[in-house]
Write a structure and sequence with these properties.
The longest helix is centred in the first third of the chain and has 26 residues, at 12-37. This protein has 3 helices and 33 strands. The relative contact order is 0.10. A 5-stranded mixed sheet has the order 1-30-29-28-27, with no helix packed on it. Strands 2-33-32-31 form a 4-stranded antiparallel sheet, with no helix packed on it. It has a 4-stranded antiparallel sheet with strand order 3-4-5-6, with no helix packed on it. The protein has 389 residues and is mostly beta strands.
């Protein structure tokens, strides 16, 4: 068999195209590396190329009545305004999408993806909303203190005011009650349901004694739903005496992140480990991110000057990434893959890489921030400014 050989010169045009392609690849690689490692280059590109700096004039607005009592929230891609037992739901363009009736005046909420769980603080009413519709509403015995919703729509509610210190009621996403967990000697401070819907974790505090005692209990939902209250408890952990647990959150692969008053821990595959010990500079800490925790450490820079390091900690590698602002922080909100930093008249939205997503500059003092999956609401007394990311 003969092998055919093709001979011939490459045209000048093709050579030029290849040369230009190589130059472009080198240039893009150089810019990308500089953006990743050089803060000044990254700042210049953010402002002049990516246009990440915005003002009030650049974003949509929801006008609100400053004289009416209202509660502002965000979930998924929506902004919600609760007032007079009605929840108005707005899209990212500031247009009202719908309005639903909720018999709640003093809400506590939890969001997860497109789910919004909302309940009356100290009352009996609870609702689950998905997108723009009420999925179910229920009334419970006792007084509601906390509500939690999982990624799959399962809901857990903590109540007090019965013959038990706390009762935890677990519902499926259709509103069917699955089981109750009764705590006779401890107070439940937080709950969370695993991403796969198999486990309910309960954070408890025992206030009987000289020192507070915190503990974690993990329940297998299928066993508890079938009435097996003893064998359904698959894991218990008791913290050191005096350590106060404040919140817990399940991650995608089953890690349970637990925040205490002085540290952040993780329970995974029946083992407990310390992720972060807080030093005296830590001002704020939160565990509401995907595979990360966040904390702020404030440092003095001389007379009346401070800087704040916003530190993102990867729960898998335990590596820290730092984003620094040259002032004190008034408020920090985190959710999913975004951290919102309120500096008073500026808001910085940063991602899990510690890079700026958006920098918002205000003409007046910002009241607070609400944060959803892809939307942030900058709240003032008479309006809400909407940032998308």
């Amino acid at each position: 068999m003969k092998i055919l050989k093709f001979k011939g010169r490459m045209s000048l045009k093709n050579k030029l195209l290849i040369f230009i392609a190589i130059i472009l690849i080198i240039a893009i690689s150089g810019v990308t590396i500089s953006y990743m490692v050089n803060e000044k280059v990254r700042s210049w590109i953010n402002v002049n190329v990516l246009k990440k700096e915005i003002t009030e004039d650049d974003v949509a607005t929801i006008e609100i009545d400053a004289d009416k009592q209202k509660y502002i929230l965000a979930y998924d891609k929506y902004i919600g305004i609760l007032s007079n037992s009605k929840l108005e739901i707005y899209n990212s363009y500031g247009a009202k999408s719908t309005e639903v009736d909720v018999a709640i005046s003093n809400p506590i909420i939890c969001t997860n993806g497109n789910y919004l769980a909302i309940a009356e603080d100290g009352g009996q009413k609870a609702y689950l909303i998905a997108d723009e519709k009420i999925i179910w509403e229920n009334s419970v015995e006792g007084n509601i203190t906390k509500i939690n919703v999982s990624k799959s729509g399962n809901v857990s509610i903590i109540t007090e005011g019965t013959s038990y210190k706390s009762v935890i009621i677990t519902f499926d996403k259709s509103g069917k009650e699955l089981f109750k967990t009764y705590l006779a000697s401890t107070i439940a401070v937080a709950t969370d349901i695993s991403v796969d819907g198999k486990y309910l974790a309960i954070a408890e505090v025992n206030i009987n004694g000289v020192l507070l005692n915190s503990s974690i209990k993990i329940i297998e939902i299928d066993k508890a739903s079938s009435g097996d209250s003893i064998n359904s408890i698959v894991y218990r952990y008791s913290a050191e005496a005096g350590k106060v647990i404040t919140n817990i959150k399940y991650q995608e692969k089953g890690q349970l992140v637990c925040i205490y008053d002085d540290s952040i821990h993780m329970i995974y595959q029946d083992k407990e480990s310390v992720l972060t010990e807080f030093n005296h500079n830590v001002q704020i800490a939160d565990i509401n991110l995907k595979s990360y925790t966040v904390r702020t450490e404030e440092e003095s820079m001389g007379f009346l000057r401070v800087k704040t390091n916003v530190i993102l900690n990867n729960i898998i590698s335990n590596a820290d990434t730092t984003y620094t602002v040259d002032s004190a922080i008034r408020e920090l909100k985190s959710y999913n893959q975004i951290v919102a930093i309120n500096l008073g008249t500026e808001v910085h939205l940063i991602n899990l890489n510690g890079w700026l997503e958006k920098k918002y500059t205000s003409y007046q003092e910002i009241k607070n921030i609400v944060l959803g999956t892809s939307v942030a609401g900058i709240v003032y007394g008479d309006k809400i400014k909407i940032i998308t990311f």
